[in-house]
Amino acid sequence: MSHTSKNQSVLLARVRRIKGQIEAVERGIVSESPCADILNLVASVRGAVNGLTVEMIEDHIRTHVADPETDENADRAQGAEDLIRVIRTYLK
Question: Which entry of 39, 45, 73, 80 is 20 to 30 Å from 18 by CA?
Fold first, then answer.
């Protein structure tokens, strides 16, 4: 079972929120909303996509590379923890 299957409901909820945000951008463009308003909507979409990306990469590392909480190899566990922290920082 893939980690995306295990967390499917959580991931789908995020995707559906992003879909709603994209639809809001479309509505703003169609209704000729002020540019600043549309840019704020786009920034929200970017943040939501980054959040989804972080969650999926972190789950991938924990499932397929090393889980810092359970890996018996201390160096590998520390490396995985460091990588997760850097990814969170970079994409937030």
Answer: 80
Q: Judge: domain 6-91, CATH 2.60.120.10.
A: no
Name residue, tokens 């201390």: 74
Secondary structure (DSSP) of the chain: --HHHHTHHHHHHHHHHHHHHHHHHHHHHHTT--HHHHHHHHHHHHHHHHHHHHHHHHHHIIIII--TTT-S-HHHHHHHHHHHHHHHHHH-
pLDDT band at 91 (very low <50, low <70, confident <90, very high): confident
pLDDT at 1: 53
Tell me the domain boundaries of the chain: 6-91
Query: CA torsion 77→78→79→83, rounded to 10°?
Result: 100
